Protein 1
Amino acid sequence: MATTQTNATQPAIQTVEDFARATAHGERTQSLLKQLRIPAIPRNYELLYAFVTASNKELCNALRKALETHSRLTEEDAESIYQTYLSKRDISDKVDTVGSKVSGEMTEIMAVIEAASERTGSYGQSLKGVNAQLAGIESPQQLKEVLGELFETTNDMAEYNDVLEKRLANSKKQIDDLQMSLELTRLESFTDELTGLINRKRFDQTIDLEMLESVESDTPLCLLMLDIDHFKAFNDTHGHQTGDQVLRLVAHTLKTNVKGRDCAARYGGEEFAILLPQTKLAAAAIVADQIRVLVKNKELVKKSTGENLGRVTMSIGVSAYRPGESIPEFIERADVSLYAAKAAGRDNVKAETDLPEAEAKTNAA
């Protein structure tokens, strides 16, 4: 009796231990969030929970290094570590799960089709048997019996076909749903969690494709690199949650003011990028200034207190693609223009043609 009682209570004890352990990890994670003054958004909680549980050694090392370097977890470090050690794993797990479900659904469909094939074969044999019986009929009673048998067999086949049709329709719906889930997972892997813009990974793919298209169609392509002025100081003064609010505000402005094939991305931290296909440098500079003004005209209000925090300004650099150059060269010229905009007092736009060295080259030519 004693042995039976011990075995019966063991799972409950294990559950209690797991619950207590998970609770302790959660409390430690919350404590770290407060200690490091990190906003408790899902991404940051997941990062520190993984750190507390030591479930990923490489993640723990990367997190320790980031904290040692900056004495806190910066937005850039958090995003980079999450994308490297957690986000990719999550996406991979989701893809594997969906793929497994699709495979299982296809196996069931093949089994149904195989069963239907066997059933059809049996029905064909039944018809042959009825045909043979018809040749030997000698009385109305015999005909009635044969026709009754034929009717029953045909009715069974019709009912089976009805079930088969419904099963296949349901399987089609299941596969359509799984395909949609896979597509959403793919989109998730290309989307920045905080802002909803495409992420750096997707931007790198897009700029490569747009450069090829620019060459093939002989059309211009411009790049805007945008940076929020004094963002780190703003973060330190008002807190990371308010900083996140600023990032979302800027992202929303970009998202609602890029059209057609224009592409806005979160490049990293407080830096954004916009690709403008089929747009010349002068027109791209006008677009950049319009965005600068739109962002500046939005007043930032702290949600928790209603406090007016003033306005957000941006510095923007603009470059035009030169056929034959590399992606780093294209981005570097936009970055240099961005630094020039900041050096000129921030809250302005500089195109590559506005730079002193560009003027010197023009005069020499």
Protein 2
Amino acid sequence: MSVTLTPVLTANWDRPDSFTLDGYGPYEAAKKALDMDPDAVIQAVKDSGLRGRGGAGFPTGMKWGFIPQGDGKPHYLVVNADESEPGTCKDIPLMMANPHSLVEGVIITSYAIRANHAFIYVRGEVLHVIRRLHAAVREAYEKGYLGTDIFGSGYDLELVVHSGAGAYICGEETALLDSLEGYRGQPRLKPPFPAVAGLYASPTVVNNVESVASVPSIIANGADWFAGMGTEKSKGFGIFSLSGHVTRPGQYEAPLGITLRELLDMAGGIREGHRIKFWTPGGSSTPIFTDEHLDVPLDFEAVGAKGSMLGTRALQIFDETTCVVRTVLRWTEFYAHESCGKCTPCREGTYWLKQVLKRLEAGQGTEDDLATITDIADNILGRSFCALGDGATSPIHSSVKYFRDEYLKHFEVGGCPFDAKKSTLWGDQ
């Protein structure tokens, strides 16, 4: 296997007891952190260059530093484990195989922001993950790593694993907070931001699972160690999830800045006898790329410069047998279904995108419909209450940009040209 891989979070995934405390080991990083000043912990994470691994890429240490100190209010840490976007599949296996890295990260993060209560908000459908998290938290309590006077430091922390009810919108941090408080999960108006008025109107940090799980290794090995990987502005390592038409799909932990071409070499390439057609660099809410982007460094800046987003590094790979129009329709159906309905652009826009795409995929539309869906997408982008609406427009704009001829082909043949009876229309496909 190439030395480009940097297994840290995934290092022990092949151990049969990786999810237990015996397989993970004592919380040495947490013990080290609790001997430090909380501000020194925050500074170490700032110096490491760790950026949020949930998609936005905001500097993690800076986010922690926004929490006001000496305000007399309780502080909270909330871990966003509501992973549910199509193609995104890194946090679920991380919590299954290595839950103690997350629990230890929670301790360090909570200590740094002076929080005595923390929550892991996990998607309710992943019952197997919930059970494993509960087991890990129970082990930590039994060892004295959670509860009162952790490591004799005088620091107390209570950690709660909370199951959501299954709503994509609750991956948005303020909707998650509303859900955690017992309300309907809908995004809040910002400001105030969670750092000022989050959970129970108190200062709150909301971090992604992988972000928090990366913290112990930073404290254990030093900020310079972490910053020595990745690129100048996108430092460290991350889990790249390869799925779809690839020989060996799975999780590949590598420095940011690696290319899809390099990852495909490790994964055995596209399935035998086929070639790549299009792919997502960060899940279904990021603009698609094509084979011309195989050598784009997978970091926040390079991907952004090419017109997409790194997102959650969910690399969905599609070969030439896949209909772009049908794929975009399936994604759009998801966003229309998961729209919370709070704002008009998203509620109405995703519905009409779905309706028009259905007509296009069936070969019943006209070229004018391409202008219609891009116009609808333009009226959603930047005008919806949260990022769900913006994400729904990404596959629309990018697919029309790169595969306009394929949309037109549907009109010409009166249906999807990838249907079995019409496969000869596409030559070697």
